[in-house]
């Protein structure tokens, strides 16, 4: 497919998104400006190139350089899919005093297929969560997601303490289930979009038993928001913080 078409649809779809998708759009106009700046940069580049094409070659997918210490490329696994995740980090508080700290109890997120974008327009993909964390999820749980009109790829949730990525969405889209455990984390970079309390850490997860499919590793990167306040002062027993992140799936 011609790259210009994809980019123009990115631009028009996002601009045509109903206003109610955007919660407090004026608070993050800088992120939108960054995003559209990159879109138009790519559009100009694609127009100038003699054979503009977007090949969606997943072997070209790479983690952002900030996560280069995880070097999956040297470990015999290959990139499979990239998902834009949008949902909540859920926390609990033992009481509502400043003596207790919020504890993470899980996350719930929709996963949208950003694989081709990650292969063809990596700079754009890294900026998506910065915009997405403020965009209300479509009420139809199967609908595509602005600003990039990405199709639903799966759901992320916890089963007990197991971060789970269920990529079976319809009877014909059965991509398996990655069940994972945490191997490592790095603090979100200083320029991450923080929301009210900061961006959640970047994570390296490996798959565990009962994973369905060839998934070996899942990386949570490009995080925006999601952190809890530092203490439980004035907070209820359970609460949620909106977040977005990119999830990179690597496997055999
Ligand atoms: C987290 O919040 C979601 C969204 O409201 C809720 O449906 C879910 O039950 C909560 N999950 C956990 C693990 O606390
Ligand atoms: C994601 O999108 C690509 C390109 O359309 C497709 O080949 C792939 O199967 C999709 N992955 C999942 C898990 O839906």
From TrEMBL:
Family matches, as InterPro entries: DUF2990, DUF3455
Keywords: Signal
Signal peptide: 1-16
Pfam families (UniProt xref): DUF2990, DUF3455
Keyword 4Fe-4S belongs to the record: no
Top-level lineage group: Eukaryota
Protein name as catalogued: Uncharacterized protein
